Amino acid sequence: MNNLPKLLSGASLLLAATSASCHSPATGSEKLPNIVLIFIDDMGYGDLGCFGATQYQTPNLDKLAGQGARFTNFYVSQAVCSASRAALLTGCYANRVGISGALNPKADYGLNPEEETIAEVLKKQNYKTAAVGKWHLGHHLPFLPLQQGFDEYLGLPYSNDMWPVYFDGSRNIPQEFARKLDYPELPLIKNNEGIKLLKTLDDQADLTTLYTETSVDFIRRNKENPFFLYLAHSMPHVPLAVSDKFRGKSEQGLYGDVIMEIDWSVGEIMKALEENRLSDNTLIIFTSDNGPWLNFGNHAGSTGGLREGKGTSFEGGQRVPCIMKWPGMIPEGIICNQLAATIDILPTLANITGSALPEKKIDGVNILSLMKGEPDANPRDHLYYYYQKNSLEAVRKGHWKLVFPHKHRSYEGVMPGNNGFPGDYAEAETGLALYDMRRDQGERYDVKELYPEVVADLTKLAEQAREDLGDDLTGN
Fold first, then answer.
1. Most distant CA pair in the chain: distance in Å?
2. Which of 258, 252, 253 is nearest to 238 (CA)?
């Protein structure tokens, strides 16, 4: 299986313990902070107790939020797996690094090894690095985690539904999903080698526990070193699977069981840090790769009232929950309502650790001031671009969001699936629309006629994005 990309086990970075080290390059006399970056697959904005979930409990994540910061306007680059992960790890909008959509087992390309990842940036300061879980940035050897700055890896090369099995666990695959019949069995990879093939949902039921135990082991083995743990859970992407520990525990059924097990996993990471006396010098970042895959009905998450979901440039697709904890640096229990994004994580970690930024241009900005709760902080000038592949579909500045005419998948007015069976999408088209995110986070009321000057201002900003990042201008 040497044609599979190398995946590194969880990456966690420990951030500098003093505020001085956060504003200037770290020196040999300072203890660099550890960093744990937990990235969930298809978790919606409303899927945590501290973000509004009610039919299951997430006590560990709620505790994490109480001990740190909750970000309410936190965004991914594009609302789909591979693009979102490429942006997170490189600090770039996904189209800048040429990754879009979700790479499948037939893809012959991946994240260009010439791009610098968070792991490679931190290696400059001698961090131990691990990736654990879903990679999805190329499954051939040159693109795997060990070739992208990680010291070790354990996980899946792509999404857990990319195997010759239907979403309910059967091999009786409907004609419209016949492409799955050409997929290989799902490989579990350690470093650069496949070590096991997953063939049933029972095989997948142990993934969350396996990833957690692997991450805890990495923490224990590296307690004397600064480390970066990137833990990318495969769940709650469908097909859903959960261990016996949590099966049937939720009032919301299997989806709630899966979220409760992820919450348990976060608790185990926090416990391992505490037991190894690392908690006070560790930055934990928890977020999701995109919003929920809504046409899976009761096997999908919640947008918390935001419009649409995964695969769209509406808020339900690109706005995700985010929690950060760093004792002594991030005040306890704060809420950040300013714009921030996954592309900001790389430059922020570089600043904290005194690591040099990538030589190539990146799009993220240092958001340490937001993490510290500084009242007047505005590091990205309230500006963010919403791309789908290479089409600029919206731009946001402050509380204004201008949506450009484009075609898109829609979940509205379509009956969702149930118990692992997907429903259909609607094919929709939107015109130019302006939304006030202060009063209308559900993007229901177009106010462009009331604020033509805002439309003109955001249109100019969009032209700057097109000159820099491109735009195919097809609306597709």
1. 62
2. 258
* Region class of 264: left (phi > 0), else alpha (psi between -120 and 50), else beta: alpha
Catalytic residue among 22, 92, 136, 408: 136
**Is residue 377 classed exposed, middle or buried when 0-12, 13-18 and 19+ CB atoms within 10 A define those classes?**
middle
Query: pLDDT tens across 354-412, in order?
Result: 999 999 999 999 999 999 999 899 898 879 999 999 999 999 999 999 999 999 999 99
Name the catalytic one among 22, 23, 50, 81.
Answer: 81
Copy the structure tokens of residue 5.
């990309």
Task: Enumerate residues 6+ apart whose C-beta is below 8 A from 334.
Answer: 68, 69, 70, 373
In this structure, are strands 128-133 and 152-155 parallel, antiparallel, or unpaired?
parallel
Q: Which residues touch 375 (CB under 8 Å, ≥6 apart)? A: none
Separation between Cα atoms, residue 60 and residue 354, nearest integer Å: 31
81 is catalytic: yes
3-state SS of 322-337 is EEEECCCCCCCCEEEC
With 0-12 / 13-18 / 19 or more C-beta atoms within 10 angstroms meaning exposed / middle / buried, residue 357 is middle
The C-alpha angle with vertex 88 and arms to 182 and 462, in degrees rounded to 5, equals 100
Cα–Cα distance for residue pair 49/55, rounded to 1 Å: 9
pLDDT, residue 325, reads: 98
Question: Is the distance from CB of 269 to CB of 227 less than 8 angstroms?
Answer: no
| Separation of CA 88 from chain center | 7
Q: What is the spatial distance between Cα 343 and Cα 355, in angstroms, rounded to a whole number?
A: 16
Taking the mean position of all CA atoms in its chain, how far away is CA 79? 9
pTM: 0.93
The structure tokens 């009063």 sit at 439
Is 140 noted as a catalytic residue in this protein? Answer: no
